[in-house]
Specification:
By secondary structure, the protein is α/β, with parallel strands linked by helices. The protein has two domains: 7-18 and 92-202, HAD superfamily/HAD-like (Rossmann fold), CATH 3.40.50.1000; 20-89, DNA polymerase, domain 1. It contains ten helices and five strands. The chain has a five-stranded parallel β-sheet, with helices on both faces. The two termini are 13 Å apart.
Length: 206
Amino acid sequence: MTGDFEAILFDFDGVLLDSEPVHCECWKEALGPLGVPVTWEFYSANCVGAADRDMMQIFARLCDPPADPAKLWEQHPRKKQLFQERMAVAPAFAPGVAEFFRELAQSYRLGVVSSSASAEIEPLLEAAGIRPHLSTVVSGGDVKRHKPAPDPYLLAAARLGIRRALVVEDSPAGMESARAAGFEALRIADPARMMDCVRRRLDGVR
């Protein structure tokens, strides 16, 4: 592995596991009684990578006339409860991910930078055996400006005291955020191939 980087920073959804379909189903169940027609096609095109509160503006425009985002936000606790219950049953991490992070931690500072709430990601990181190898976790509540703004990655870098990081992302907003923070960004299309893609990049294969 190369010495190009001091740290490796990972997005959560779409990189470490694919929980976006679960998020979508939970929003659909929570907001359906309010008349919000959430579909996977709409969610995947407009909501992946966005912070939960920012999604309320997006969901509000699905209604005719547009809904009140504040009223939709009142369903956020219900959505979080649904998500935690479903992910506790079957978190979709790739086999070997804990060993992968243990290996990387020998050479790099590691962090997770997500727009999701801490309560949604921390238990899953613990359950997967990843959390002990992380030096920082930046969640949606830690910054005022979310991806695509650079703030989440700048905060992670400040916490770690590093200037050179490889960011592993899956969404356009995440890639823009990483690059705006001054870091190289590696885009992942499939969480199942994430470990192989990162190893190849660290071995100098582009």
